[in-house]
Structure formats: structure tokens, C-alpha cells
Predict the structure.
Amino acid sequence: MHTIQTPFPVSPDPKFSLNFVGSCHGLLCLAPGLEHNLGKDVYIWNLIIRKYKKLPLSRYSDMFLDEKLMLFRLWFGFHEPTNDYKVVRLIYFIKNGYLGSVDVAPLVEVYSLRSDSWKIVRNDVPLLVSQNVVAFHKGVFYWRGFKGILIRPCMMSFNLDDEMFSEIEQPLLDSPCSLLAVKGSSDSVFSVYSKLYGGHNGVLELWKMGENGRGWMKAYTIECNRGVGWTIGFTRSNKFLYVTLEERLISFDLESLKTEFHDVEIPFNRFAIDVNYMESLLLFDH
């Protein structure tokens, strides 16, 4: 485990802690205090050469008036056809400070590193709130969306090619499960479902998306004797990570199918995100 100092300022105030937006081709996208500074500070950082770029202000920055009435989501990925890195920002307007109360579609804009500018997306935008962490695979973002806490979550996608949103058909489950997360691995996308046993999530089912984003195959079933607080994702060493209700890290080996307990505490008020990191020499010199 390593501690890394960022080259840009981060407030010591816990509510302005560093938010990981995503990692792609050796670049990290970070947003300090995403929910408390109205999403204004967004950075793309090359960790190896210690170069970073602060993104320009949102096209909607004049509308950022009250953090209690707004919710921000940021996604980061690489668009291979244009050889360009993109950041997607969703801006939700919530009622009475209640996350489950959203009755208008979010504002959406896409940042291009190549042009160093934001573009407003005016395509049909779903009335759904995205979870914090999304999966990115072959130019498409996949995410778990919900309209309210009492409504069954759905699975959505956003394609960087045409900048269109789509709903993804979920797998036919063998028994009642709830969609917990959508995670990306090095070669595919997985939907993660949980089964309730003894009042907590006792079993995880990992379903692998088929070729061209069509169909699903159940890939793994994980017995979670210590319950599941939340899932982290896949590692390069072919392991799936999740956190127990006791805030301890668990790894499931995708080859041996064995579960290993790690004496590493990950509190619920902190986020742990799996970053499959690689080196990059991008200089931000355009």
C-alpha cells in the first residue's frame, strides 16, 4: 500500500476529500470535493510524469448555486476512433435535498481533452440517477440507475460514438436478486447481483455480458459469509474485491474460486476503487 501526494491542492476538510472519477491508459481523473464545491474542480493527472491538467469550467457553471439541491456525476474514458480522452458530467437537480427525489432529466455535457472544451449533449436523457462508479468498456459507459429507492434499479449505457443513452436488458435470474453494481474487467462487463440471506447480502452472482453487449452468462457465484457492504471491482490478478458489513476487504480468486479475507479496514465513509493502472507519457502539451 502506497501514499501518493497529488500535485494540486486538496483541502484537509473531510468533505472535500479526493474523488476518483476513473482511470484510462495511465491517466487518472480526479475531482476533489465533488459534491461540496459544485463539481467545479476536475483534474486529469499523469501520475508517472507528474503532469496534470485542470479542466475548464462547466458550460453550466452559472447555474451552480446550491450544493444541497444539486448532484453531480463524472465519468472518464477514452474514445478510440477520435484518439481523444473524454469526461462526461451529469448534473441532477434534486428536491428537498433528497437523493431519491428527481423529477427532471439531468443536464449532460462532454469534455474533450483534444479540444479542451465542454460540449452540451441534447440527446434523449433518461430520468435516472447514476451510481457513483461506472464501468467503461470499448467506448461505452455502463451503470446502475434508479429513479427512487422503492423502484427496481435498471442498467443503462452511454456510448461515446453517438453520445446516446440506452437501457440494457438484464439477465434472466434463477431466483430473486437485486442489482448491486455494474463492474468492468479487462475483457468484459459484469452485472453484480446480491441475494438476501439472514437479513443481509449473503450471496453475490456475477453475470458476464456477451459479445457486442448482447446477452448474459452467469460466470461466478460467491458465498459471502460475512455479508456484503459494497463491491469494489476486478484486479489485473484475476480477483474480485468486495467489502464486508464489518468493513473488511475480501478477495475472490476467479481461477481457484477461493475467497481470502484481508485484515484491511475500509470504512463506509471512504471509497476504495480498483484502478487497473498502466504507465503513460501523455504531456498535455496541446
